[in-house]
Design goal:
Blueprint lengths: L2 E4 L5 H10 L4 E7 L2 E8 L2 E6 L6 H8 L5 H13 L5 H8 L4 H20 L5 E6 L13 H21 L7 E3 L11 H7 L8 H8 L3 H13 L3 E3 L4 H14 L19 H8 L7 H5 L28 H6 L16 E3 L8 E3 L14
Antiparallel strand pairs: 1-5, 2-3, 2-5, 3-4, 6-7, 8-9
Helix pairs in contact: 2-5, 3-4, 5-6, 6-9
Amino acid sequence: MRLEGTLDAFSLPDIFQLLSYTKKTGTLHLRRDAEHGVVHLRDGAVTGARSDVFRQALGRRLVGAGLVDDEALAEAVAVVCDAPDTGLARALADTGRLDAELLRQHGVEQATDAIFDLLRWAEGDFAFVMDELDPDDLGAALAVEDVVAEGRRRLESWDAVTAAVPSPAAVVCLAPSPGQDPAIDRDEWALLSLVDGSRTVADLVALSGRGEYVVVSALAALVERGLLSIGSEPAGAGALLRRQELLATLEHAPEPPAAVGGRSPPPLSRRCALSTPSVRPSRSAARHRPGKRHRSAPRSSRNGRNPSRPRGSRTTSSLARRTPGRSRFRRPRRSVPFRAHTPCSRSTIWTPSPPPRRTSTVIPA
């Protein structure tokens, strides 16, 4: 049996009711321009669905949920490349690294999201192929009535959701200062972690791997709570950036003064050095400075000679300080006073030296 036609003649809910009533097993193909979607049924119940057969929607959902590591994903991809009839989710389930119940739950969510996307098709062609199996059959079985009812409920609330998120190409930004303390669940946190101020709504849908309705509804709820901004930069972030730039005008280094008389001013380090008063070291500091001799330091001992230099030796500095008109020889020393000791006095009396006596010799005639 082959059932085919157009969606403008038969609506998709009517086709589902017909296949469910007759307990058909196979795959319903829907095509619209370059788009191609499928719905898999077993005994009239939905086992899986994809709104775009060219994308691994269920695999992206598992990766976005953080259930698959690099090693398991690489192994499953290799299996699918060797056997194209095997689905990626089925290959991941065969590895035994994922819980079967968790995989089935994600398969149900993926089928529900895909059927909602297909219900929005107002035109297109459909064809039902008997006994075409689901490559990603994880054991799920959804009643057609429940899936159609959930799809219609989402269609009724879709207009209110798109009012907050008007376009898939709109950029999503984080609000810098929420009005109240944020309280979010695990799924909302996973969605907020993907927001970087440049990604659009369509980018978030693709990265999260979840359905468009689920992601857009979560974004609309976050916008209403003041945690996100859609389509433009939030007002708080713009005001914060504007005020920070205004403060930056006061944080630049001062410009040097203009040149006076054709001469440029000295650099800042030299101006600071010139403005700092110089402090001459004390005599003790100059005396104990290693390798440096100050003018105020003593140069000679009591007898007029440097005790650390042998007699008659001269240094280069002493010769360099001598002026051309000055004599090279020292002045004669003064006469040493005569010390006389008197027996009647305990102190020493200093008296000048007596003049030399002149003696005359008389020669007889």
